[in-house]
Write a structure and sequence with these properties.
- The protein is an alpha/beta fold and 468 residues long.
- The chain contains 19 helices and twelve strands.
- The chain has helices at residues 15-27, 34-44, 49-64, 66-73, 86-101, 107-120, 122-125, 130-142, 155-163, 167-177, 179-190, 206-215, 254-257, 260-263, 280-288, 302-315, 331-337, 373-389, 411-419; strands at 195-199, 220-222, 229-232, 249-251, 270-273, 294-299, 320-324, 344-350, 392-402, 424-427, 447-448, 460-466.
- The strands form two sheets. Strands 5, 6, 7, 8, 9, 10, 11 and 12 form an eight-stranded mixed beta sheet that branches. A four-stranded antiparallel beta sheet has the order 2-3-1-4, with helices on one face.
- α15 (280-288) links the parallel β5 (270-273) and β6 (294-299).
- The longest helix has 17 residues, at 373-389.
- The radius of gyration is 24 Å and the shape is globular.
Length: 468
């Protein structure tokens, strides 16, 4: 993203709440992720570390708990909350989140600060909503909490309300994987994700980096499944961690770290990464082959490839060639890639998807999606897979992966592709999965971390090999 050169906003008496409110209101109609909106807002507002942390907590907390919050607010309102002005909706939810989920903030402060914020917006809203906001939040404090929906008679509603997911999604998961796993997946979608690092073994080892963090007084632990992961016990600015500027690590979920090794790339391989930005898997593949070979990293968005270039520079990786384009269209192959290499030894298709496996990192996505999206994604994924696979050499390996939990975007894509491509066959990923990760292999030998108990995101990967 280009640097924003707008003047910084003047400081307000309640900066953290104002930033959170602004981002939440924007998120209703924006196609951009909340992480992008929040980053922009934080750059425009001069917040100290305490207020910055509170703004993050409030923004993500409201979106993670939105379903539960609205369920608690519904009996207190004489009309649906969505019929209120967007800013008023989000301000009441902000206050409710503090009352219901933040023990460190006194109830009186949550109410009073919310009232102050809405009073300051009276001219903009053309109405003084302060009395209404005050009354709703004080009733929330005063009135006893209603019982949860019945687990026995309305399980989908119970999971939706308690774990704050759309009811269509909790019902879908119950039908697919049963109540026990569905509840685990719903709970994971609301949890705060850990910050996980992938060690850059071109420059260090996990043991050396763990020791360096411990010497710096940073609480860390080795990941349970990935042999190259480190999990931070507490959050904080990543760029201030020891070794960041030296390129000793890359921020990446533990499940994502399991995917590039399934390709089993070798030094000297010519590798194609079909949907590459911001470069996590491309840089991991380059590291796996000792920075010896070629990795073509394609993405439709040039701005995202700039992130990849920056990551490569920091990590000391020189073999990744970014290519702006869409793998479904031949122009990129002809102009930038096919003139050098007609076929590839290894191909990774980390396909665009619903992202249901990473909802805890992008909680706004829960409220933007519906089941109709799966069909659209499926068609796109099949097209991308077919286009990329056509350039795999005989005997080469392709890995298809997503951060989705849904079969329409995973197993069904693979099955449809194999029916029309007899020259490909599915191989088990077992030889390239750590022993601790074998529990995540499906009956077909694919990787699926849906509903895992290891604190990882939900990822899927299938390994395909082309006949010689």
């Amino acid at each position: 993203m280009a640097a924003n050169t707008s003047p910084r906003q003047p400081q307000t008496p309640f900066p953290a709440r104002s930033v959170a409110l602004s981002v939440l209101a924007q998120s209703v109609d924006s196609d951009e992720g909340v992480d992008v909106l929040l980053d922009r807002a934080l750059r425009l507002n001069q917040l100290d570390n305490r207020d910055r942390g509170l703004a993050l907590d409030l923004t993500y907390g409201v979106l993670r708990r939105l379903g539960t919050i609205d369920w608690r607010l519904d009996p207190l309102l004489d009309k649906p909350i969505t019929r209120l002005p967007t800013v008023v909706q989000m301000l009441i939810r902000l206050g409710a989140y503090q009352v219901l989920f933040l023990d460190r903030i006194p109830h009186s402060a949550a109410v009073n600060e919310s009232v102050k914020v809405v009073k300051s917006m009276k001219n903009r809203l053309k109405h003084d909503w302060s009395g209404f906001v005050n009354a709703v939040l004080r009733r929330l404090i005063r009135d006893p909490a209603p019982p949860w929906p019945s687990f026995e008679t309305d399980t989908a509603r119970y999971l939706a309300v308690k774990h704050s997911v759309p009811e269509w999604l909790s019902r879908r998961w119950i039908d697919r994987v049963g109540v026990e796993i569905a509840e685990r997946v719903c709970e994971q979608a609301t949890n705060i994700p850990p910050v996980t690092l992938r060690v850059n073994r071109l420059k260090t080892t996990r043991e050396e980096l763990l020791a360096r963090f411990v010497q710096g007084g940073i609480a860390v632990r080795a990941t349970q499944i990935s042999p190259v992961g480190i999990s931070l016990e507490h959050g904080g600015p990543i760029t201030s961690l020891p070794g960041f500027d030296e390129g000793l690590f890359y921020v990446e979920d533990e499940a994502a770290q399991l995917i590039p090794p399934i390709l089993d790339p070798k030094p000297g391989d010519v590798i194609f990464d079909a949907c590459a930005a911001p470069g996590g898997k491309a840089t991991h593949m380059a590291e796996l082959i000792g920075n010896r070979g070629v990795v073509y990293a394609v993405d439709r968005k040039g701005a995202r490839l700039e992130l990849l270039k920056g990551n490569c520079r920091r990590l000391g990786i020189s073999i990744v060639t970014p290519v702006v384009g869409d793998v479904r269209h031949s122009s990129i192959w002809q102009k930038q890639v096919l003139s050098r290499h007609q076929q590839f030894d290894r191909i990774l298709v980390d396909a665009p998807c619903s992202g249901l496996g990473v909802l805890r990192r992008h909680p706004e996505a829960k409220w933007r999606k519906d089941s109709a999206a799966f069909g659209r994604h499926h068609r796109l994924q099949v097209d991308i897979l077919r286009s990329a696979a056509s350039r795999l050499r005989p005997g080469g390996v392709l890995v298809y992966s997503t951060c989705s939990t849904e079969p329409e975007e995973n197993e069904t894509v693979i099955e449809q592709f194999l029916k029309s491509h007899a020259e490909f066959h599915r191989e088990s990923s077992a030889p390239w999965i750590p022993a601790a990760g074998e529990q995540f292999l499906t009956r077909q030998g694919d990787l699926s971390t849906m509903g895992n108990r290891a604190g990882m995101d939900g990822f899927y990967a299938a390994r395909l090999k082309r006949a010689t």
